[in-house]
Amino acid sequence: MISRVLVPVDESEMATYALEYALEAYPEADITALHVVGVPSSMWGEASGIALSDDLEEAAKEHARTVLEGARETAGAYDAELATDIELGHPVRAILERADGFDTIVIGAHSGTLSERLFVGNVAEKIVRRSPVPVTVVR
């Protein structure tokens, strides 16, 4: 039985679809929406701005606040409670480090801009390949 579900979220439509899928497929499970504020690179304008902030942790939380508020609104439409969490770091590593505490991961097929997907790689693909728990990819 699936009792704990991890759903990585960002501002993408695919992440919203993944969260909706998890809420529908696992209505009795404890679902956690995780937003990872990526490590800075020249390709990630937003993360680079966060990295230059005086208080890195506070800037990351501020960036994640709107993403997680959207996730809570989605859960509210399903009359469901949703735990939320923020991590700072490389998205794949951060998600995989949390995976052992869950029964499954539900992730959107892709997110980010085309250039991020080309240069950084597809997060969902890497999660599927490396996850210690089952993964559902939602399109």
UniProtKB/TrEMBL annotation:
Top-level taxon of origin: Archaea
PANTHER family: STRESS RESPONSE PROTEIN NHAX, UNIVERSAL STRESS PROTEIN
Protein name as catalogued: Universal stress protein
CDD domains: USP-like
Pfam families the UniProt entry points to: Usp (PF00582)
Family: Belongs to the universal stress protein A family.
Ranges where the UspA domain occurs: 1-139
